Amino acid sequence: MIWSDFHRTKWNEATNYAWKNFTTPTVRRMFSFLTVLGKAALPRDKLKELTGLLQEMKTTYSLAKICRYDPRLRRLPSGDYDYDAEFEADDDNQIGCIPTLPLEPHLTQMMATSRDPEELRYLWRAWREAAGKPIRQKYLRFVQLSNEAARLNGFSDAGEYWRSDYEIDGFREEVEELWQKLSPLYQQLHAYVRAKLVEKYGEEVVPRRGPIPAHLLGNMWAQTWTNILDMTIPYPGRTSVDVTNALRIQGYSPLAMFRLAEEFFTSLGLEPMPQTFWQRSMIQKPTDREVVCHASAWDFCNGRDYRIKQCTEVNMEHLVTTHHEMGHIQYDLLYRNQPFIFRDGANPGFHEAVGDVLALSASTPRHLQSVGLLGNVDDSYETDINFLFAMALDKIAFLPFGYLMDQWRWEVFSGDTSSSNLNSRWWELRLGVQGVSPPVPRTEQDFDPGAKFHVPANVPYVRYFVSFVVQFQFHAELCKAAGHEGPLHRCDIYRSVKAGRLLRNVLSLGKSRPWTEALSVLTSGRTNKLDVEPILEYFGPLRTWLESQNRGELIGWRENEAIVLQVTRSNASLITGAVLAVIALVLLVALVIIAFRRCRRGGNKNFNTASQGS
After folding, report:
1. Is 454 annotated as catalytic?
2. Which of 115, 163, 229, 332 is the most buried (most CB within 10 A)?
3. pTM given for the model
4. DSSP string spanning 317-336?
5. What is the pLDDT of residues 564-579, one digit of tens each?
6. For 498-540, what is each residue's pLDDT tens digit?
7. What DSSP string describes 159-189?
8. What are the residues facing 102 on neighbouring strands?
9. Following DSSP, what letter does each residue of 223-271 receive, concatenated?
10. Which position among 129, 325, 428, 477 bears the catalytic label?
11. Which Cys-Cys disulfides exist here (predicted)?
């Protein structure tokens, strides 16, 4: 509320100026940001309500726990598990439980390592029961208030307000066009992974031509598939880039992982983390209190205090996450000398991309070897395919999820999706765009989007889709600056001061210039648009390999072959279907009765004769 009061005061001051007539572009740009009030435009009582709802939803998410899986857990007649908070034994040897398992690290690790479909099904269902379902009504009210705030700022709804961060007309259509260009590569990956899962679990669990059940992909939301690399790796006997075992054998701690990430940044001539960062960051999950474990980076806006909050586990995935979060801090450090209004990413996707750009180099086999986490590395075709496949399970598998999350929210904000089809529309998108289906039936009593942090926390998500495109544009240009020759996927910009200088020039602009101009600086004027060509070039060898492996496989999926079919229907269609079924049943019964009566009138003689002759 203090920040909102301050923002409103500055907004009142800024709107007194005829700023659109200013001749200095930088000053005009400042005022264009200052005169958008955001949620502070709401009346004080509604602002307080919106803020309270947001905090309640985040608290529900952060405190959500479930029971440990046990085959003896009490089952309801529907076949679902009971989620009683009391532990007691029943006569039939089924038990209730006390929920004790939080998402981090327990459920995340279980989803990553379990290969028991029934356990995974239970974990998937239980988390959504605990984290998503309870906030459904609160979220609907939150949407109403968010839309009201957006309209007070001159936008049609909150979705349009979010899209305004990208400062271009037709942003929604541009994202759609980017996805259409990337979708064929994703479908090749999907077909190959589905075939491997069929080999593992059988067609009774994974349909050979249908969507993949979402609980089998190693992640609570099926957004990345890196945790099933062991089941799907193309050449099991060749080099793997998962250095989790090496990190643990060598005694790496979360702090050591952060120091390793920092050294990559400083090797480029970029900024070291300030001393306060090491003193005040939370890089391990505390044992004395509940926290939201979702990793995040914090700029306290005083030019000195920067922190990361992360419940770090010693594994490859968290090593990459550490680079990602430290990338946010590096961006914050590089634009700290800009006026306050410009201390932000050129667009939200730029901010998400910075750490991932460095992780593209830090994940290469040659780099991991150079820092002692991999032994001898060969440059064979098989090693290349293994590496690219592992990267694709992270980068390519994520793309449809990154795309569809805000497609759903934009529809909710606009009213195209309402309370009557809130959850079913979510699953229509998951099924149609991503090719995944839920392992259990879903209804409008559920709220599955709410089981993903960014929904209760109200964090826009299309930024991640944009970042996955732009990070490969960054990578291609930084590799040119570093003098790299050869395939793009083998590039490592480690210790290239020239690459670091180019990155500094782009990031230090902050938001002082439109992101299209920042992209033009990066590419030396060759383009100012988002471009999927670098990501397609990077994964080009893998795509060729996948196409050869997928001969005979269906590329894409048949929605009607999902293990759980009814999830694609809205409430309206379910009701319509039920009514039609009742009508059909009534007609059938009527026909049977009519036929029976006719039989009695015209067929008694035959009936009696048959009886007598028996």
Report:
1. yes
2. 332
3. 0.86
4. HHHHHHHHHHHHHHHHHHTT
5. 864 444 444 444 444 4
6. 999 999 999 999 999 999 999 999 999 999 999 999 999 999 9
7. HHHHHGGG--TTHHHHHHHHHHHHHHHHHHH
8. 65
9. S--GGGHHHH-S-TTS-----HHHHHHTT--HHHHHHHHHHHHHHTT-P
10. 325
11. 67-97, 293-311, 479-491
